[in-house]
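REVIEWER CHECKLIST
Item 1: Sequence provided? yes
Item 2: Single chain? yes
Item 3: Sequence as submitted:
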Amino acid sequence: MENLKSNIDHYMELKGIRKYSHLLIDIARELGMKGQEAYEFADKEKSNFSKMLKGERPLKYNFIIPLEKIFGISLARLLYEDAYKLPVEKGNVPFNKGFRYYAYLDDPQLYKDEFDVLLANDGRSILNRTDEFGKTFLDYVVEYHSVNGVRYLHDEYGIKLKWADNQFEFRKDKGIIWIRFENCIEFARLVASMNDIELFNDIYDSYNMFFTNGHYATKDCIFCQGEYLEIILDNDELFDSVFEMKSYELKLGSIGRRKKQVDSITYCSINPIINNCLRYALIHLDKYRDRAIDILKFGIDYNRKIVGEITFGDCYICNELGGLRNFRNKDYYEIIIFVDVEVNDDEIRYLVNQLPKFKQW
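Item 4: Structure as written out by the authors:
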């Protein structure tokens, strides 16, 4: 930590901060403390801070953003003066502010003017890079509730949960990167809090998950997790969207040097997550009874419609999402509503009995 101490001393001198106790008071104020509380904080932390500078204990995580703001540089630069400096001849832009800085401020103009050109020290995007704490920009978007960061990632990078193992995809200037984000539930809560249903469903696109992953979902997929399903069931507008009919084009392949598209299938379906919502609501009937009834009533009419459009005896439910296939030619048809949970409730059982049934594989 020698670099940290010498660099902090250097930047304290530049900023006119004479003592560590004065710096700690500034840190306390950045943390929201006022008056006597800030002085008490500085007195309490003085010994610990001295040990941090000597390398006898790690720098406290909640000191990072305050130090970055006070000195106007990233922690990486505090630790090592030449961090993120890239060769000018390559046309790269130095990474002179930690990406935590942008998530913390959450300023749309800063995202537009600065973040898009930030590069790691190998000249690549920083979106899927981690900092000294093993965290990505997405982690800090969640931590600081950076709603403008969410919208920026959506509008500029087309962020989308792409695969069944919860990887986010980003596309920019014909390039694609992926992040396997462990904190995708908290990110979903943040996106849902923005009350932009179209944006939420575009990022957490269950149609994409379903049709690009062979019409199945694993238990580890977020669309099968109770915490995610509660986000849908607890939000009236998100819940209403599971009944919407939507067309989805699945591109099957490409050929030649220029990757000319050769084939695709267009599916038209209700939201593939609807049976997961129904299953979860039936298991937690004390909380989601009304939601279960809404889905079952919808399913009675919807399944009847599907029965009228197909050769009923030739079809079977092929997966846990309610996907319907034809026995003879294996064509995929549609999502239908089905129940695989036993419920001790007279009204629910009556509705289940009214629901047109299909064979299960």
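Item 5: Key structural point noted by reviewer: The longest strand covers residues 246-255.
Item 6: Recommendation: ____
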